[in-house]
């Protein structure tokens, strides 16, 4: 009798097929295709990829491409599970899915992204958000009905880049509606004066009424309340101010930061649970200049790096340090205008600013690029490992 037992397959479970989770899953699956000793399983509530960078377009009724995740994974050996993770048990190394299934893992990649921070009273009940395709479609429907009525006021709460993009998009698509953009900061804060001037002019051209320096204290069924005691009436409120992450990691006892993000080491492993890697917006990844703020440009590299760290660890090697430097902040201002503020690796603005039609083309190229990158990575995984490492801004003693 043959007593040899086949070695158990190493199970890598990736939670979330966003920019970061999908990058991790494709990179891992492509590099281990046909190996039989490692299996990748990807869990996501939808079987199409949500281009979160386009959700402000979805919210104005524009159709975006149907990008099938199972088709992308086809031929890589990775398995796709449609579902929503509801609990992680790091002791048992299992994840519970909303349909009751329990999935086992040896290594977990946590990439559940972030959602709008609706902590302000009334926002959860009365405000729309751009957290997913369904919510964006509900807003699109509401805006359509207001536009058919011929008038209405839409308040966009939050003057960060998502708020600016959404306000411009709504104003361009629905010129009959009054769009009010409210926030603590002036739009474009943190960009060069030339970028800010272009942004201000574009918002004015589109008729967006901007009020910076205000604090929204509550969202009401018919408007928003401000800290100075006044109210801004609205027929619809879109909330874009700040982001928060799902409480799953904190509930599971993983070390998280003040915003609930999984705190990682330089290889992108959880500092409390090294068999858990965290990527994208759900991770608190420290670089020489500070903790990464959630962006697509940094999210995809974290996914690829986590995959490479997992493979190095399984091969008995020390994983490399993750290093990333920002290079741009592109902001769309409707379909034919944009501002691109080029940045230093630490995110501070450089002198170079692109505006107008060329900036809009640049922004569209950037927005459209993740999916072709995944497709390319499936065939040539090394192509996904190219990103700016940040030079001296991210160099530490161990990376010299
Ligand atoms: C309107 C808008 C415009 C933006 N524009 C830009 C931009 O121009 N440039 C830029 O760099 N960034 C931009 N961002 C930010 C960018 O979208 C995020 O930083 C990026 O999506 C983070 O990628 P991620 O993979 O971490 O998360 P996500 O892309 O949010 O992916 C998370 C995935 O996890 C899934 N998920 C959620 N909960 C569960 C669960 N319980 N179980 C399983 N799966 C789950 C989600 O469905 C999703 O597929 C924009 C954001 C918005 C909203």
Automatic annotation (TrEMBL):
Residues 11-286 form the FAD/NAD(P)-binding domain. The chain crosses the membrane at residues 12-30. GO terms for molecular function: NAD(P)H dehydrogenase (quinone) activity. GO terms for biological process: aerobic electron transport chain. Signal peptide: none annotated. Its cofactor is FAD. The keyword Zinc does not apply. Belongs to the NADH dehydrogenase family. This is NADH dehydrogenase FAD-containing subunit. It comes from Kitasatospora cineracea. The lineage of its organism: Bacteria, Bacillati, Actinomycetota, Actinomycetes, Kitasatosporales.
């Amino acid at each position: 009798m043959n007593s040899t037992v086949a070695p158990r397959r190493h199970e890598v479970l990736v939670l979330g097929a966003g920019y970061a989770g999908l990058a991790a899953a494709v990179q891992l699956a492509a590099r281990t295709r046909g190996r039989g000793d490692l299996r990748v399983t990807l869990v996501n509530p939808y079987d199409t990829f949500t281009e979160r960078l386009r959700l402000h377009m979805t919210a104005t009724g524009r159709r975006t491409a149907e990008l099938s995740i199972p088709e992308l994974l086809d031929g890589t050996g990775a398995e796709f599970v449609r579902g929503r993770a509801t609990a992680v048990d790091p002791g048992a190394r299992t994840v519970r899915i909303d349909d009751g299934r329990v999935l086992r893992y040896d290594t977990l990649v946590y990439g559940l992204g972030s959602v709008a921070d609706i902590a302000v009273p009334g926002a959860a009940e009365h405000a729309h958000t751009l957290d997913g395709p369904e919510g964006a479609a509900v807003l699109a429907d509401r805006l359509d009905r207001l536009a058919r009525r011929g008038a209405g006021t839409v308040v966009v709460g939050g003057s960060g880049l998502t708020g600016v993009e959404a306000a411009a998009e709504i104003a361009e698509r629905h010129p009959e509606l009054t769009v009010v953009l409210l926030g603590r900061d002036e739009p474009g804060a943190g960009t060069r004066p030339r970028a800010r001037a272009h942004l201000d002019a574009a918002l004015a051209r589109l008729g967006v009424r901007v009020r910076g320096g205000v604090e929204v204290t509550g969202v009401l069924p018919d408007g928003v309340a401000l800290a100075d005691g006044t109210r801004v009436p609205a027929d619809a409120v879109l909330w874009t101010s700040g982001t928060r992450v799902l409480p799953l990691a904190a509930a599971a006892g993983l070390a998280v930061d003040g915003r609930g993000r999984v705190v990682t080491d330089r290889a992108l492993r959880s500092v409390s649970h090294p068999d858990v890697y965290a990527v994208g917006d759900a991770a608190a990844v420290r670089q020489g200049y500070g903790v990464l703020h959630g962006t697509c440009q940094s999210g995809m590299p974290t996914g690829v790096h986590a995959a490479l760290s997992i493979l190095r660890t399984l091969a008995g090697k020390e994983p490399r340090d993750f290093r990333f430097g920002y290079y741009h902040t592109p902001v769309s201002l409707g379909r034919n205008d944009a501002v691109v503020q080029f940045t230093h690796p630490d995110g501070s603005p450089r002198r170079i600013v692109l505006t107008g039609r060329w900036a809009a083309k640049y922004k569209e190229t950037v927005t459209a690029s993740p999916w072709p990158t995944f497709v390319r990575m499936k065939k040539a995984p090394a192509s996904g490992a190219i990103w700016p490492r940040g030079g001296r801004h991210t160099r530490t003693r161990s990376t010299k």
